[in-house]
Amino acid sequence: MTCSTRRRAHARLLALACGLAASLTGLPLAAQTFPDHTVKLVTPFPAGGSTDGVARPLAAELQKLLGQNVIVENRGGAGGSIGTAMVARGPADGHTALIVFDTHAINPLIYKSLDFDTFKDLKAVGQIVSMPLVLVAHPSLPANNLKELVALSKAKPGSVSYASAGAGSSNQLAAELFSRTAGIRMNHIPYKGGGPAINDLLAGHVQSIFVSQPLVLKFIESGRLKALAVMGNERSKALPNVPSTKEQGYDGLDVSSWIGMVVPAGIPDAAMRRWTDALQKAVHAKDFQAHMKQAGFNVVESSPQKFDAHIRREYERWDPIVKDLGIVAD
Which of 56, 127, 193, 290 is in Cβ range 3.0-4.6 Å of 46 for a Cys bridge? Predict the structure, then answer.
């Protein structure tokens, strides 16, 4: 046997061995080697917001499952579209994923010059959590329920201010829906993320916010903020003494926030399967579930198909409302 013949035979044996290893694990060979370096979770909002509060404990679980370092990178701005664009235009090798907020479905409606396509350039991996919105106020606001807030706003239109994480955020949409339903006008103060908005509310620079429960639960419990209502038809288990908007006479205000994961659309199939499997195992991990429950998040059963359908439903739900309200990002 010549040297070249022996080399060809060795190559065939090596290929057969690799194929056998892959078949024994039930995974393609590419899936076994992914990831092969540090994995990045991008959150498109500043540190301190809801996405950050989910991304960091999630990263800890994913690091165990993926066998590589998983870091969280905050890329805030433009209602989440800056960080989203970075991931959508970045490498599609599977080593970067994006933690998205509810603005992911709304940004295409309010930003007319996005340099990415939400539905073509990004692929859903799964929803992670949902959380009810709560109307909270600084203790100095002379209103302790919706009736008093409405009376104050009607007596002095525009005198009550509310913060938001930016144009088209769930904070703004919830506030505008409530204002239209109640027949009042409130003064919108937009911020670049939920964290900065909450900080200014705590300092008394703005009077109220319609915000996801986990962001303010500890401040309500400590008395630094007061809760006026839970958005929707039912009370929150975490805030059993706070009446819902429906209880206080305002129906049709069932608005909640949600967080999920997407990846660049060009991700290899094997890497996509690995991400899907890892995400589902991570959200079911005991430590992650306990952390989310304590923080006031509701963990959601999901899949790529379910989350993709959810994003599209949210887009279709808010489309006519955004147009009717005339919301356009700066």
Answer: 193
Evaluate whether residue 172 is within a structural domain.
yes
Across the chain, mean pLDDT equals 89
Residue with tokens 């239209």: 180
**Backbone angles phi and psi of 47, in degrees to 5:** -60, 145
User: Pick from 179, 212, 230: which residue ends a domain?
Assistant: 230
Report if pTM > 0.90.
Answer: no
Any bridge partners for residue 256, and if so which? Answer: 132
Pairing of strands 122-137, 161-164: unpaired
Residue type, 67: G
Query: Within 10 A of 255 (CB to CB), how many other CB atoms are there?
Result: 20
d(Cα 16, Cα 21) in Å, to the nearest integer? 9
Report the domain count for the chain: 2
Helix (H) or strand (E) holding 42: strand 39-43
Same domain (yes/no): 94, 136 = no
Amino acid at 164: S
- Residue 47 shares a structural domain with residue 194: no
Burial class of residue 87 (count of CB atoms within 10 Å of its CB; 0-12, 13-18, 19+): buried
Question: Which tens digit of pLDDT belongs to each residue from 258-304?
Answer: 999 999 999 999 999 999 999 999 999 999 999 998 888 999 999 99
Count of other CB atoms within 10 angstroms of residue 277:
13
Asked whether residue 80 is domain-assigned, the answer is: yes
The closest of 111, 117, 102 to 310, measured between CA atoms, is 102
Q: How are beta strands 256-264 and 122-137 bridged, if at all?
A: antiparallel
Sign of torsion over alpha carbons 215, 174, 113, 88: positive
Q: Is the peptide bond before 35 cis (omega within 30 degrees of 0)?
A: yes
For residues 144 and 142, what is the distance between their CA atoms, to the nearest angstrom? Answer: 7
Residues 44 and 94 in one domain: yes
Beta bridge pairs of residue 188: 162
* Both tokens assigned to 97: 């994923």
With b meaning 16 or more CB within 10 Å and e meaning fewer, what string describes 123-142? Answer: bbbbbbbbbbbbbbbbeebe
In a domain, 125, yes or no: yes
Range of the domain at 175: 132-230
